[in-house]
Write a structure and sequence with these properties.
The complex is a heterotrimer. Chain A is α+β, with helices and mostly antiparallel strands. Chain A has helices at 49-62, 115-124, 137-144, 160-166, 173-176, 283-294, 308-319, 348-361, 375-385, 387-400, 420-434, 458-477, 493-499, 502-515, and strands spanning 5-6, 8-9, 19-22, 42-45, 66-69, 85-88, 95-100, 105-109, 131-132, 147-148, 183-189, 195-199, 209-212, 219-222, 259-266, 268-269, 273-280, 302-306, 336-343, 369-372, 409-410, 437-443, 448-454. The chains are: A alpha+beta, B alpha/beta, C alpha/beta.
Chain lengths: 531, 257, 363
């Protein structure tokens, strides 16, 4: 029998135990990667869950807004405080240990642990300081061989807590899904300081509600009534589904419903991979090639795309000696590039030959590719994947001297597989008529390419804004999501307004108020502040 | 021209930390950086009629690095792999490599190798190998070009740059080189799998047990300890007013203690 | 070397495994397995750039160290023309007892084949217990070549030597310098190359004297450089007092330019990490680390460097390390005397501003 009851735990609220900063010392916490600057009176740096609980308890009691801060790598202003307090999780960066259940191995981490930390431990077998969450887990993990946490957002310095808050995806999510699919357990601190410990598969909504348990303070938390778009890679809005698992309330809700103080994430066995990069003379050919890859049985682990403009930009930077001067010449130029990882197993040779014939039909060939299997070589590949954003940043940065308000403008749109070709056509047509210079790259596996707009002057800036808006509208019309990866934060609230109507948004407001009556958690994130 | 390319596989130290007192294990291994320079040089020197043969002495995983050499253009490879080779010091290593060369590829023209391995870092095997084979050597090179059957090698030594003209047979050890490393194509990858990679045991090269591995080594490691760096350090944050910048300025201009 | 008192065979290998020729009791009775090697042989290097050839500092270190081992003779081998013997006196002042002067006019320049021949023939005559060379560019070639010719073991790049009842315990760094290994040799002479600067140079004893033995030798047939020119990209990083080093955390080329400007103002040398070289932002000659330069400046300012082991290998000998890196978990923060968490670009701008205030540039 499933239950729908969430039991709250309590800590003794003692804020004096928590390290606090004020005055000029808060300055380091006022910005994230969106480059917006906020303000705050105090910063609390918690070292444990009890600390988080104390801060939130007092914030609610004193009606003080609290903005949650971890690594501040977000690009939508989620960690930028709007007065009040900052709750910094910077000290909660311990990888606690490894456990095992009948599905497989998992890792228990504090919220400020980064993907890089996790990768380092799993790749190098550094289990020495870790606890055995279940007896014998580590020794069995060592025996079973190297494992992997499959969600790999580009920003490897982001915290796991933030990944959970945004339901982040990465290049592998095409195959393995976003963060949501890999979170096994969460401990969440609510606005009043009480704590929920939720394991996936244990608490489900009944008749559209959960029961929030507590001494003399029992209440109902009604879930949302709208249909959450699961068909496409989506991080916008609070999760909702009939009979949903309680844990999913807190994944993708960008910290407005509670603060994560502990996570357990699942791992999968690592497989040796061949990282490949194929070059195809034109964008259309590359997209056809990608379709073919998607159709394969044991298909690629990830599929990334860089369009012809992008490759041209890299080549430009390389020739001028700005970046990439250690990169060899492209085997085909001009061309678009498709990056993909395929498993190294017995069927590899056959698969490569099949890929070869598809490439031939698109005017390319197996000799116009790059590949790597040794770890360090694959690292070099990964850095190429980040090469494009770097080139774009560099380009924009030099324009910023003339136009200090300039910021890079890009789209973060994903559409369902069925609308993919129509959306691509849309990109082409709308970009052509805008006359703007663009570069497209990204996670083609989930039909989620980034379109980066290169802005020369103020005219361009306005055109770009219009273009982004039009593309977002079009995507929504096709059943897609305009903010697939970065979240809504403070900067993209208008997208929420485009995706959901007023009733649905009010529904989210209602849910928020049920869990955070005074609206102290991350006000202004996702939903307009009701303070 | 027949070029023998001696390579080594080492732990990837570019990212890892150190497990106290233990050699990093379980982490990824890579082709030694200086051997990579030698590989690039060998392939660049190679013409249609020439052969580049890669050789490595190491545990089973070393075949990965040999595969890499084959992908990037080496024609065939030898993997000296035998439990009896374990524990070799530089002398035993040089002896084993020399024996392979004498037994199997004694008609080589040149030997190219990396100067120093990223783990042991002694940089001595090239010299010892050259001596055992009785051929001249040029160490610490950064550039090689070819002129018909001759090679010109440049290296830095004590503040000078020297250029050597070499005829067969000679050994060149690369310390650095071009930082643009080629990437093999998927075609190269397939082709490499079909190239000859011969595993060589001690008996295959008629080497006595006492002449290789731990038994054949002349030096013994008596102990290993981790150097714990302890420095009196102060930690600052850039936004702690400008004290960070002041501290740096004072230190640089010697105005601190 | 072990088995030296025995003339049953001419094998030079160590008889550690037991001898097939001599009966066991005989061997014991006459102590045929005794090690009769004695004395410490040092390759003495001279600096020919001045009017009179002078002993290089590193040779002073090694002679003095060998002197401190025990009461066995310290023998130096030096190569050079006639005039080189004037340096012999200095060698005696630092602790040498005998100098073998391997003479030929061309020996002012390093000649691998000849020097190998010279060292090994002297060693054969002297049969020393230990044989020590400096691990400079030359020693790194000469040491192992000589060792291979003599069929003995050699330990390279030592930073420590300890003599214990005739056994030399050699310490050297491995794995980027984090792991120190102590090694002994089971052949004689026990050979080592030593990193310059590992030992102190004591005061000279002007009154100390010794014997010079002439060892004339013709140059051996070997290869010589066709060209030899002063290096432009002078590795003067080794001598630099102030080094500003950039890592990939420098972020972009504009920050790099800023760093270069500051370096010029401060009179500092520029250096970098391997990743910067790989990006093509700076030349290999500036690289500090395992596969680059090893430096020991008074101040090493690390900008945006993570502090990976292979970089630490090149700079951990710095007197003072100042690190600025945005990542609070970067390893460099653990070995820095002044550790700053913050953005490199911003730091450089503020430092430049500070320089403008304190030391206004002349217009």
């Amino acid at each position: 029998m499933t239950r729908s009851r969430l039991v709250r735990e309590r800590h003794e609220p003692d804020i004096s135990r928590v390290k606090a900063l004020d005055g000029n010392a808060v300055n380091a916490y006022l910005q994230d990667e969106s480059k917006l600057t906020g303000s705050a009176d105090m910063v609390f740096i918690t070292s444990d869950e009890a600390g988080i609980s104390s801060v939130l308890y007092h914030a609610t009691a004193g009606n003080v807004p609290v903005t949650i801060s971890a690594r501040r790598t977000g690009v939508v202003g989620g960690a930028v405080p709007v007065g009040g307090w900052v709750l910094s999780l910077e000290e909660m960066d311990r990888v606690v240990g490894i456990g095992e259940d009948d599905v497989g191995f998992y890792m228990q981490v504090e919220p400020n642990v980064t993907l890089r930390q996790i990768d380092d431990i799993l790749r190098n077998g550094r289990y020495r300081d870790l606890e055995e969450i279940t007896p014998g887990a580590i020794s069995r993990l060592k025996k079973m061989g190297r494992h992997l946490y499959p969600v790999d957002p580009t920003e490897s310095n982001a915290s796991l807590g933030a990944n959970a808050a945004c339901n982040s995806s990465g290049s592998r999510s095409y195959r393995h899904g976003p963060t949501r699919d890999w979170v096994r357990r969460l401990r969440v601190v609510l606005a009043d300081g009480s704590v929920l410990d939720i394991r996936r598969g244990e608490v489900f909504a009944k008749n559209g509600a959960f029961i929030l348990d507590g001494e003399g303070d029992e209440r109902m938390i009604e879930t949302l009534s709208y249909e959450f778009n699961r068909e496409v890679k989506n991080s916008a809005g609070i999760f909702s589904a009939d009979g949903m698992d309680a844990i999913d309330l807190f994944i993708g809700s960008e910290g407005i419903l509670g603060v994560v103080s502990l996570l357990e994430i699942r791992l999968i066995p690592w497989r040796p991979m061949l990282s490949c990069m194929a070059f195809v003379p034109d964008d259309e050919g590359a997209l056809r090639f990608i379709d073919h890859l998607k159709g394969l049985d044991d298909g690629p682990e990830l599929i990334e795309f860089i369009d012809r403009n992008g490759i041209e930009m890299i080549e430009c930077e390389r020739k001028e000696g700005h970046l990439f001067s250690n990169m060899p010449e492209f085997p085909l130029f001009p061309a678009a590039a498709v990056m993909f990882d395929i498993p190294v197993d017995d069927s590899l040779e056959m698969l490569i030959e099949e890929i070869g014939s598809v490439l031939k039909s698109e005017g390319s060939g197996l000799d116009r590719t790059w590949c790597a299997h040794e770890e360090r070589e694959r690292e070099r590949f990964r850095s190429f994947r980040h090469a494009i954003p770097e080139a774009v940043f560099s380009y924009i940065a030099s324009r910023k001297l003339q136009y200090p308000d300039m910021h890079k403008m890009g789209t973060d749109i994903s559409v369902p597989e069925s609308s993919s070709s129509e959306m691509m056509k849309c990109y082409r047509d709308m970009v052509d008529s805008s006359g703007l210079r663009t570069v497209m790259f990204g996670h083609m596996g989930d039909n989620h390419p980034h379109l980066e707009l290169l802005i020369q002057d103020m005219d361009d800036y306005e055109k770009a804004e219009r273009l982004c808006h039009d593309l977002a509208e079009k995507a929504i019309g096709l059943g897609g999501c305009p903010s697939a990866e970065h979240g809504i934060g403070r900067l993209k609230r208008r997208y929420l307004g485009m995706m959901y109507d007023e009733t649905q948004i009010q529904d989210m407001v209602r849910l928020k108020k049920q869990l955070d009556e005074k609206w102290v958690l991350n006000p202004g994130v996702l939903l307009e502040s009701m303070r | 021209m027949k070029i023998l390319l001696m390579v080594k596989q080492v732990p990837d130290l570019s990212a890892s930390g150190m497990d106290d007192g233990k050699v990093p294990r379980g982490g990824p291994s890579v082709l030694n950086p200086q051997c990579e320079y030698a590989l690039d040089a060998a392939i660049a020197l190679k013409g249609e009629e020439d052969e580049v043969i890669a050789v490595s002495m190491g545990p089973p995983s070393a075949s990965g690095s040999l595969l890499r050499c084959l992908e990037l253009g080496a024609d065939r490879a030898y993997h000296l792999c035998d439990p009896d080779f374990a524990g070799s010091d530089v002398w035993a290593t040089a002896k084993t490599l020399a024996r392979l060369i004498i037994e199997k590829e004694s008609d080589f023209d040149y030997i190219l190798c990396g100067q120093r391995a990223a783990d042991g870092e002694t940089g001595q095997v090239p010299s010892m190998l050259a001596e055992l084979l009785g051929i001249p050597q040029v160490s610490g090179c950064h550039r090689i070009i070819r002129e018909l059957a001759f090679l010109h090698a440049w290296r830095g030594m004590s503040g000078r740059i020297e250029r050597f003209e070499l005829g067969p047979k000679a050994l060149i050890a690369m310390e650095t080189g071009c930082n643009v490393h080629r990437l093999p194509s998927m075609e190269d990858f397939l082709a490499a799998k079909r190239k000859e990679l011969t595993v060589i045991s001690r008996k295959d090269i008629s080497l006595e047990k006492s002449d290789c591995g731990l038994m054949g080594s002349h030096t013994v490691v008596k102990g290993v300890h981790v150097l714990t760096e302890s420095r009196e350090g102060i930690k600052l944050h850039l936004d702690d007013t400008s004290s960070a910048v002041d501290a740096v300025y004072e230190a640089v201009r010697r105005r601190d203690k | 070397m072990k088995g030296d008192s025995c003339s049953t065979c001419s094998t030079k290998s160590s008889c550690a495994g037991g001898c097939e020729r001599s009966e066991a009791e005989l061997a014991e009775m006459y102590d045929l397995y005794a090690d009769t090697s004695e004395g410490h042989l040092i390759w003495v290097e001279l600096d020919y750039s001045q009017s009179n050839p002078m002993l290089k500092d590193v040779s002073k270190e090694l002679i003095a160290k060998a002197r401190s081992f025990d009461d066995q003779r310290v023998i130096g081998v030096l190569f050079g023309p006639e005039s080189a013997r004037y340096a012999a006196r200095e060698a005696f002042n630092y602790g040498a007892d005998t100098i073998y002067h391997v003479r030929h006019p061309t020996f002012t320049d390093f000649d691998l084949e000849s020097f190998t021949a010279g060292l090994t023939t002297v060693a054969e005559r002297v049969k020393p217990n230990t044989m020590i060379l400096a691990a400079g560019d030359e020693g790194r070639e000469l040491g192992p070549r000589a060792a291979a010719r003599m069929g003995v073991g050699i330990t390279a790049d030592c930073t420590g030597l300890e003599m214990e009842k005739g056994v030399l315990r050699m310490t050297r760094p491995t794995f980027g310098g984090k792991l120190m290994a102590t090694i002994i040799s089971n052949t004689r002479p026990q050979m080592a190359t030593v990193r310059p600067g590992s030992f102190l140079i004591p005061e000279k004893d002007e009154g100390r004297q010794g014997t010079v033995i002439n060892w004339p030798m013709n140059p051996a047939a070997g290869i010589e450089p066709e060209e030899s020119a002063e290096s432009e990209n002078e590795g003067c990083l080794q001598d630099a007092e102030l080094i500003i080093s950039v890592g990939s955390g420098i972020g972009n080329l504009r920050n790099l330019e800023l760093a270069k400007e500051i370096a010029e103002r401060l009179g500092a040398d520029m250096a970098c990490s391997r990743s910067v070289v790989e990006k093509g932002w700076m030349d290999q000659s500036h690289q500090v680390g395992q596969t680059g330069n090893v430096v020991r400046p008074r101040i090493y300012l690390a900008l945006g460097i993570s502090g990976a082991l292979q970089h630490q290998a090149g700079m951990s000998g710095s007197q003072k390390i100042i690190a600025i890196n945005n990542d609070p978990d970067a390893a460099i923060h653990q070995i820095a005397n002044i550790s700053i968490v913050g953005e490199v670009g911003e730091f450089l701008q503020r430092l430049l501003k500070k320089l403008d205030e304190e030391e206004p540039a002349e217009v």
